[in-house]
Amino acid sequence: MMLILALVSLRTLHTSGDHIVVDCSPDYFTAEIVVDDPKKPCSSFSSPIYTFVDRVKYDGKVIGETSVGRFSYVNIHRFYTELRFAELRIEDELVVKHIYLEFFDGERKELSEREFWLKTQKFFVRFTFDLSDPVVPDMFTKKKYQPFGTPSLIFTPRRKYRILRVVDGENEIWESSDTEYCTCIIVHIYGGINSFIQLLINIKEQYKALYFESKEYSWREIPKDDFYNKLEIASGPAARF
User: Fold this and answer.
1) Residue span of the signal peptide, if any (predicted)?
2) Where are the domains of the chain?
3) pLDDT > 90: what percent of the chain?
4) SS3 state of residue 41
5) Which distant-in-sequence residues (6+ apart) come within 8 Å of 139 by Cβ?
6) Is 198 helix (H, G, I), strand (E, B) or coil?
7) Judging by beta carbons within 10 Å of its beta carbon (0-12, 13-18, 19+), is residue 52 exposed, middle or buried?
């Protein structure tokens, strides 16, 4: 009776919010964690203690398999829907082993703990542009121009970098969806009572411009005409584009 209840529990276990599915394999005492693709770029999953997880899959492919112990924890990092890094923890009685993996161009590479930490830190830092912090020189090009009364700055990420978030300290200005990224940031005025920036967004190779205004460090998106009218008052005659 207890065995039947355990099997029923194992077969029906799922947490839809985190897109985790635990599915029994035919021998009843092994299972696999199938990691679906929620929008979060980083997700962690823990398997219940009464499951014996011996396989971890992502997008239908096995990324980890063990015949000794069970996978008790999985931490994944993805770029859009593409898996880039994974940390897998195997527990066998009192022994705990961590496996650190990198995925790129279809290749799977095992890393040391330090390599994994350094690469994942770089992986996430490069996706956020913070107006309040200095820009890392090798990540962006910076160019001055003056279409308005006040000089402006154009920040463009180098080819291998894509901006997925734009923030001003703790204040989020813009965050990408699954199919878009920011290709250019134009800072017209920053600091003081009013700030004005433009973002050029790539959406499946189609581009659109977004316009943002900050009043006392509270950012909001505004229509193009309102943006130029306010910018003209704040900085001088505007050359629209």
Assistant:
1) 1-17
2) 2-125, 128-235
3) 20
4) coil
5) 126, 157, 158, 161
6) strand
7) middle
